[in-house]
Design goal:
Elements (H helix, E strand, L loop, with lengths): L2 E8 L3 H11 L5 E4 L13 E2 L4 E2 L7 E2 L3 H10 L3 E3 L5 E5 L7 E4 L7 E4 L4 H9 L6 E2 L3 E7 L4 E7 L2 E12 L3 H7 L1 E3 L4 H9 L8 E7 L3 H4 L6 E3 L4 E6 L7 E7 L1 H10 L1 H16 L8 E6 L35 E3 L12 H18 L1 H4 L3
Parallel strand pairs: 1-2, 1-13, 2-10, 7-16, 11-14, 13-20
Antiparallel strand pairs: 3-4, 5-9, 6-9, 7-8, 11-12, 12-13, 15-18, 15-19, 16-17, 17-18
Length: about 375
């Protein structure tokens, strides 16, 4: 017989975990299924280098208007790190041409990173849940409506399993939902179409991070920003930790993504070392470690065989992506479904909070215990 719990959540990214924490406050059991072997979703801050510096290979920054991130970080005791932006940058027009120094033409809006990386938000929220609440390496494959509940079919390390929940929140990108989860009865055409047409923020991106013995670029009067038309990294940024541990972080250029796809990770890392030597000089210290990510090939972000949609900014979601289905038993939460700051960390928090409130509205007996 399948297990039965009040609340189920698909996805242990920031949005799903925020929803889980709010629902857990009612005193009811919550189960979170996560396809990856870690929490955090598109926030990923693995340790790197001799000092095990946690660097962001996914979402990294938040801005002044992202008040939910600021409030959650303060609540969890996570320090915010101002982005280092003095203004002197490097420009690499081509790999065979000299690198140029230039003052950055305008001061960017103030932005912040989080000490320990943005994944620490999800890790801290997950730590507030019971130890068995989050099941890693569990991919939801089928969702079926019954008379008074929702049956969730999951593929896990020990084989398939089934759990019955009163309410299910799907907290993974809508486009991923459309290609990887089967619903019975099928979702309305308007909803399924909106899911397929909603770009997954960061799905077309790849990132690189590199650690160093010291922040030598600051000693050279450079802010760590490199703009490159040559690649393999298109934009480098200063990622020095508050205690001075030195690092750079950047977004892969299309040539970097191609190198990774064609020649593999070692070839990409070798190309990154060559680029850094070209930009900062052959006598500049070599990186002590390099790591890269490619969200195009992460099958918990981008459906296998489906090309990511590239957009400059996440679109405001159509209302159907925020509306409960199945008489309030099936709900949606991911950064793409946020009505404020969709796609960003702040949007992920908003969507998780909204979905939890919608559960409370659909289940007054749960809300009354808050």
């Amino acid at each position: 017989m399948p297990d039965s719990i009040p609340f189920g959540i698909v996805g242990a990214g920031l949005s799903g975990l925020v929803a889980a924490a709010h629902l857990r406050e009612t005193g009811h059991a919550v189960m979170v299924w996560e396809a990856r072997d870690r929490v955090g979703g598109r926030t990923w801050s693995p340790p790197l280098g001799p000092d095990s510096l946690h660097l962001d290979l996914g979402a990294a920054w938040h801005w002044r208007e992202h008040t939910r991130v600021q409030a959650l970080a303060e609540q969890l005791g996570i320090a915010r790190v101002p982005q280092h932006e003095p203004g002197i940058a490097l420009y690499e027009p081509r790999a065979e041409q000299p690198v140029q120094r230039f003052p950055w033409p305008e001061t960017p809006p103030p932005s912040w990173r989080l000490e320990g990386g943005t994944q620490t938000l999800a890790q801290h929220v997950a730590a507030t849940l019971p130890g068995d609440a989050v099941r890693l390496n569990h991919r939801v494959t089928d969702v079926r409506r019954t008379d008074a509940s929702v049956q969730v079919r999951v593929a896990g390390p020990d084989g398939p399993s089934s759990t019955t929940v009163a309410h299910l929140i799907v907290a993974v990108p809508p486009r991923l939902v459309a290609h990887t989860i089967d619903f019975d009865p099928p979702l309305p055409d308007s909803l399924a179409s909106a899911q397929r047409k909603t770009p997954t923020w960061m799905a077309a991106s790849g990132k690189a991070v590199a650690t160093f013995a010291d922040a030598f670029w600051r000693q050279q009067g450079i802010d760590g920003r490199v703009v490159s038309h040559a690649g393999p990294v298109a934009h480098w940024h200063d990622a020095v930790a508050p205690n001075g541990r030195a690092a750079l972080a950047g977004f892969l250029h299309p040539t970097g993504v191609q190198t990774l796809a064609t020649n593999g990770r070692e070839a990409l890392h070798a190309a990154i070392r060559t680029q850094l030597a070209h930009c900062f000089g052959d006598d500049a210290p070599a990186p002590t470690a390099i790591a890269t990510s490619n969200w195009r090939t992460d099958d918990a972000t981008t459906p296998p065989g489906v090309a990511p949609m590239q957009v400059e900014h996440p679109p405001t979601p159509p209302p159907v992506l925020t509306q409960p289905q199945w008489n309030g038993r099936l709900l949606w939460a991911s950064a793409e479904t946020a009505t404020e700051h969709p796609g960003y960390l702040d949007g992920a928090i908003e969507a998780g909070e909204r979905a939890a409130e919608q559960v409370f509205e659909a289940s007054p007996e749960s809300a009354s215990t808050r």
